[in-house]
Every structure is written in C-alpha cells, then in structure tokens.
Amino acid sequence: MTSLTRAWTRLDFERDGKQVGSFNFNHSVHRSAYGVVQIPLAVIRGGRGPTVLLMAGNHGDEYEGQLVLANLVRDLDPGRVQGRLIVLPMANAPAAKAGTRTSPLDGGNLNRVFPGDPGGTPTEQIAYYIGEELMPRAQTFVDLHSGGSSLEYAPSTLTQVRGDSEFDRRALAAARAFGYGYCLAFKVQTPGGQATDSAFKHGLLNLGGEFGGQGIATPKLVRKLADGLARLLDHLGVVPAQGALPPGEPVRFMASPEVDANVYATVPGVMEPALELGAWVKAGDLACLVHTPEQPSREPVPHRFEQPGFLVARRAMGRVEPGDCLAELWIDYKP
To answer: Whole-prediction pTM value?
Structure first.
C-alpha cells in the first residue's frame, strides 16, 4: 500500500490475535522536542472474513462510543472473530483527553478536515492516516457519534446510500440489523471534509449514528449502543453472536430536508425547550423560548419550526448566543 503518511504503528495488521497499541506521529513542542502524538489503536484478527473499521472519539466530547469500543477491545475474545476489527476508540485523542469537540493542539475539528494532509496539522495527519491507511484495509466503516457537550440526540443511526440498488440494499440492511428506531439515510452531495466522504471515496459500507449527548454517557445509552453494535457485527459475520442477542427495534428511515430545517437562536439568553426529543412537529410549532433572566420583565422570544419533521436533536446547553443551533429536524426518507 503506497502512502505519504508520516505516522507509524508497531501493530501488525495481518497477525492473528489481539494487539493493542497506537499509531503515532511526531509533534515537537517546548516541553517535548522529540515527542509524538499517540492515537489508541487495536487490531483483533481471527479466521477468514471481512474487515470492519470501528471509530469513536471523532469529536472528543462524545463519550458513548469511546466507552463501548474500549469495552469491546478489552472483553472480546479474538477466537470469536471471523475476519478483522480495526478499532479506534478515541480517534481525535488530543480532543478526547481534553473533553472538547476540537483539538487543543491546533483547534482542528477532525470531522471537517478529511482527507487530511500527511504533512499538515496534527488533526490533518490523524485524518490522513485514518482515510488513507486504515480505510483501504476495510470493507465497512462504523463511526460512533453523539451530540457532545452542546447537543442532545434521540438515539439514532446513519447509513450512507449511493443510488446503487445493491449497495443501498446492503446499507439499509445493516441499519436494520443495528436496530435503532430511526436511521438517517444520506448521500454524499458536496464533500465537506467528513470521515463519511473518505468512506465514500473508498467504496465502504458506512454506518454511524448519534447515540446521545449532553457531554455525558448514561448506562442505558451505553448498553443500547453495545447491543446495536453486537447485532451489526453479527450481521456482517465478523463477530458471530454466541446465543440470542437483545432484539432491535423496527427501523424508520429518515432524510435531511433539502432546505435547512434547523432552528437557530436569533437573540442571546437562556433556552426553554417546548418539546421533547422524538416529537413530530408542524410548520409554525413552537421549538423553544429564549429568555433574558437579566431583564426579567422582558418577554421571552419565541423560536418556531419553519418546516414539519421529526425532532431528532436539540441544544443541551441552556445559555445560547445568536447562531447557535437550537433544534434539528429530519423527514421521512424516499428512495
């Protein structure tokens, strides 16, 4: 495999068994002239079968996936694997260690810089290694997200469709196996620097999701995500289930509206949500009120939905500034 990457790992991708280590790249700073940035990496390989690249911590303040993949690396017996798992439990490790969405090393948002740059900033080097060293080894890419500190999502999956009937059949089947009640089926339209763009380039089956948020991880959501991932790995044949798995839910496939249906703050203040996540709304319905507690006699400013849809996410932080996303809508998917 030809690559320009300056990153390196001591892990052998072709060796059977479980290996846990990191991929590394040089990062010279005042306190460490010859230092490296270490990105945790595991390879679990067994018999013949597909390769699945599993990633969490794309954004550092999204914790559910980090916990589930760390548990998987620790607990999975490599004898159960029929193929290979390549696991990145905290892909943007500098951001994950800081508990922030973006990297403290360069301010980089990993999910906005793909395909990256082998000689670029730390975040660009991480993206390049993932997109050009790891993705070409896999047939399926799974990227586990959540709302992070600023958003809360109704737990839901995402799968990439291409307009190719066989590929799309496989993509929708994978989402059904994961077994979350709602799944966003999306196409790459204009490349935006996301990991999904690199997965599209390499022809990978691509599944991810938004599995919670608020900058925390609850026992319920961690267990739900672990169960969904187990069903997916069984479906793909790479980790066959031992006994019955918890059943999934019937899946309703969704899409993003063609016209931006998100609600954005127009004034600063404190948000009072009007609806719970999972609500179906009509155009004109109240999304929230934005109050000004420092001027308690002032009437709160209503913010309304301009389109109908499914309320999949809302802001998790009470304090808002103009331009903050307050609510996100999906609509039903039409192939």
So the answer is: 0.95
